[in-house]
């Protein structure tokens, strides 16, 4: 039975936002909390620090960062192609479903993750990343199809809120299952940890059905996904790149963003592995409880950080606020180099949360204000997203490489501090008036 809800209808908007409730459990449970703990425990239980992969011995932390980097490299190549398909074919729902099921079934398959079958295990983790980020391309592209411009900010925020609530609820359930495993009939914490991966996959695929039921197939464009459509995204990116040569302020800002965003995203993706491996936890239970609590702390504080950053930018301007936040990140990296105890890590996590939410929101809005007068904003934001993902590829690779050649992730953290310092210098080189002054003049 087909449902053709009118654009802007409350039921259609809620169905779209509900996909955030479904898929956000991946980013919190798999990317940030439970899987990093599980991955580290596998090596500790086996009594090894290194494993043979492709003929060479590699430590566990660099290994997972390389796999993550490779996944984001593929995503950065795929995104322009997928965006072209999303824009020019009449059935984007089928692509949303494909990537959703790829991600959710990959999460379920992590139940069988083992060092004995390390290649297929890492490939499963790799596919989970592809499924999550690939589905977001089509999910985000639905927004102008289902909501009028005046509705888009509100329903987008509702999606983020639903995603936050849903992911926190499942993470808390997973935490109880792991710490109080005997309540659920398990003999050790290992089994409920693996079961948490199954729960993520079932939650993601299961709750997505509500979105799939009401979302339309796509726009009215019936064009076939031929070569012209497939490579449209790359042509659009090339056009933006050429346009940057005529806009010095935007070009320098984007360069600065590319550098410091590399640091931000790498910290977010690698922090759990750093805490799991480098801190002096008194027991496995303290490690599990402490790491999950710190992840939740970051999530909660990030909301306050976004509000605080918004107020600072109104008072001091976007660029000066971004420079200040980057200095805070430099301080975080320098302090994290010496962090040993869980309590020290909690304090660091609180500061990270404060600047994490703010810098992401402010970076995007600053980019938006620097854009030239154009109707083709989608291409500029596609360029922005690809730049961010390529930054993740480089950041995660260098993080893992430095940890591998020096034998410690602490040296990688110090290196990230240098990245933020370069970001500060590049932000100082962005020419012209502050964004605040420019926007005031426009209003006048």
Structure description:
The chain has 444 residues and is mainly α. It starts with 9 loop residues before the first helix and ends with a helix. Helix 11 (284-316) runs antiparallel to helix 12 and helix 14 (377-406) packs antiparallel against helix 15. It has helices at 10-46, 60-88, 92-109, 118-141, 143-146, 149-179, 190-214, 227-230, 232-244, 248-278, 284-316, 318-336, 342-370, 377-406, 409-428, 435-443, and strands at residues 50-53, 56-59. Strands 1-2 form a two-stranded antiparallel ribbon. Strand 1 and strand 2 (56-59) form a beta hairpin.
Could you give the count of β-strands?
2
Roughly what fraction of the amino acids lie in strands? under 5%
Secondary-structure element order, as H and E? HEEHHHHHHHHHHHHHHH
Question: What is the total number of structural domains?
Answer: 2
The overall pLDDT average reads 84
Query: What is the tally of helical segments?
Result: 16
Rg estimate, integer Å: 22 Å
Termini gap: 54 Å
Largest sheet: 2 strands, antiparallel
Q: In CATH terms, what is the fold-level topology of the largest domain? A: Growth Hormone, Chain: A
**CATH architecture assignment of the largest domain:** Up-down Bundle
Structural class, please? mainly alpha
Uncertain residue ranges: 434-444
| Backbone shape | globular
- The portion of residues assigned to helices is over 70%
What would CATH call the class of the largest domain? Mainly Alpha
CATH homologous superfamily of the largest domain - what is it?
MFS general substrate transporter like domains
The neighbouring-strand order within the major sheet is: 1-2
């Amino acid at each position: 039975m087909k449902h053709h809800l009118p654009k802007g209808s409350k039921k259609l908007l809620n169905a779209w936002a509900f996909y955030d409730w479904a898929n956000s459990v991946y980013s919190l449970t798999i990317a940030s909390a439970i899987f990093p703990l599980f991955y580290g425990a596998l090596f500790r239980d086996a009594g090894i620090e290194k494993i043979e992969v492709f003929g060479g011995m590699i430590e566990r932390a660099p290994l997972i960062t390389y796999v993550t980097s490779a996944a984001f490299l593929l995503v950065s190549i795929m995104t322009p192609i997928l965006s072209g398909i999303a824009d020019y074919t009449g059935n984007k729902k089928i692509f949303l479903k494909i990537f959703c099921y790829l991600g959710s079934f990959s999460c379920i398959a992590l139940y069988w993750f083992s060092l004995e079958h390390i290649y297929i295990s890492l490939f499963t983790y790799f596919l989970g990343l592809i499924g999550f980020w690939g589905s977001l391309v089509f999910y985000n592209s639905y927004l102008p199809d289902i909501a009028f411009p005046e509705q888009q900010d509100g329903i987008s925020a509702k999606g983020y809120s639903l995603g936050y609530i849903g992911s926190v609820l499942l993470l808390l359930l997973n935490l109880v299952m792991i710490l109080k495993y005997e309540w659920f009939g398990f003999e050790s914490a290992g089994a409920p940890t693996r079961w948490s991966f199954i729960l993520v996959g079932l939650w993601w695929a299961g709750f997505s059905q509500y979105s799939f039921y009401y979302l339309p197939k796509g726009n009215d464009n019936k064009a076939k996904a031929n070569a012209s459509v497939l490579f449209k995204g790359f042509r659009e990116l090339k056009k933006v790149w050429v346009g940057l040569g005529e806009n010095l302020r935007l070009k320098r800002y984007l360069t600065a963003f590319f550098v410091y965003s590399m640091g931000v995203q790498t910290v977010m993706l690698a922090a759990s592995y750093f805490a799991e491996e480098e801190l002096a936890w008194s027991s496995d239970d303290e490690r599990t409880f402490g790491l999950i609590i710190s992840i939740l702390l970051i999530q909660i504080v990030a909301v306050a950080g976004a509000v605080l950053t918004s107020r600072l930018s109104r008072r001091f301007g976007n660029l000066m606020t971004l420079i200040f936040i980057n200095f805070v990140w430099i301080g975080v990296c320098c302090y994290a180099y010496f962090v040993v105890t869980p309590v020290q890590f909690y304090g660091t996590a609180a500061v990270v949360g404060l600047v994490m939410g703010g810098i992401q929101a402010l970076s995007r809005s600053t980019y938006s204000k620097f854009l030239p007068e154009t109707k083709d904003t989608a291409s500029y934001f596609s360029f922005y997203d690809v730049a961010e993902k390529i930054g993740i590829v480089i950041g995660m690779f260098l993080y893992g490489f430095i940890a591998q050649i020096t034998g410690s992730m602490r040296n990688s953290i110090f290196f990230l501090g240098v990245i933020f310092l370069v970001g500060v210098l590049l932000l100082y080189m962005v020419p012209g008036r502050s964004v605040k002054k420019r926007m005031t003049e426009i209003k006048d």
